[in-house]
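Before relying on records like the one below, remember that each one covers exactly one chain. Contacts with other chains, cofactors or solvent are not represented anywhere in the record.
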Amino acid sequence: MGASIAFHLARRGVGAILVERDHIGAGATGHSGAIVRQFYESRVGIRLARKSLAFFRRFQGETGVPCDFRRTGFLTGSRLRDLPAFDALVGLLRTEGVRLERLRPKEAAGMEPQLDVSDYEAMVHDPDAGYADPIATAAGFAQAACRDGAKAIEGEEVREVIIRRGRVAGERLRGRDVISSERVVLAAGNWTPWIARQAGVRLPVHFVRGDVAILRRPPGSGAPPRIHFDVYGNTYSRPEGEKDVLVGYMDSGPQAALRGPELLDNALPVATGRDLLSRLARRFPIMARAQPRGGWSGLYDVTPDAYPILDAVGPTGLFVAVGFSGHGFKLCPEVGRLLGEFIASDRKPDELAPLRAHRYREREPVVPESPFPALRGRTLP
């Protein structure tokens, strides 16, 4: 997210310095499932995702480097009891310009032969969805930003934002060095609330554990599968290259909430890997013979409504991009563009109004226009 913002600021001719405490893509970005999809229950989510997907498809033309975006298509389905809500959501997506195919289960089975569709009453296919390489994406944004005059500093940790007379004056690094600036954007993922608190800003963000397993598809499983959301089995999956599948939980559950902002051990527990394989095999029976190839665990930064906070907060000149709740990677191109416009012009784009920081205090959280019941309240990839 920070690299995208730096890229869009540099494109506008604004001098930007991107500060990373390790290396670009080292944090949650590098662990992202990197799914790029448009299947959202709210107009604000759909619009951000649709424009971001369009950017991913032209990423190399915009930045000069590839992000390895692969268009796979996206499938999900509904059982009979949830069909009215499902059809309402399909209608909302279509009114927002998302190109969808509503399918009978037999049609979907012809498209994805290994998928068990026996409990589905209807399915939807988004042919434009896919996934990208998250590290290549972050590095690509950073490289393009530097070509346009930005500067990237790796291996430096921001300790605090410097405030003088109610205005941002810069930021202090771990070694006591100071970067002078009238504007600072906090896009440090799970560390953003901690840094913001030093500037007197409290953000309603908590941390939720997410687990991902990589499985080798067994012989005879055919072509790489499409992205699939199984809202009833609580898994999402996508191909990982030509031979593997990446699978994770759609809803990590309240028991996964942690004090954060960092896991002491990001290894995938053996029992969790087995559970993910078992869940995936219920939907793709051939995967019962899949070979575990590893995985990882990480933390989502989650807001009360599972939509990000993108706003100016606290002292003049301080901005935050936080609380992406598992959506951040797929939204980063359009979020970077909108925040770049806001920071450069001091005029907030209308698209950011629903994502203002004070919406919870004002009792106006983002509310889905067409909630699909099995998705409500979930932290999605």
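Residues 211 and 235 are 11 Å apart (CA to CA).
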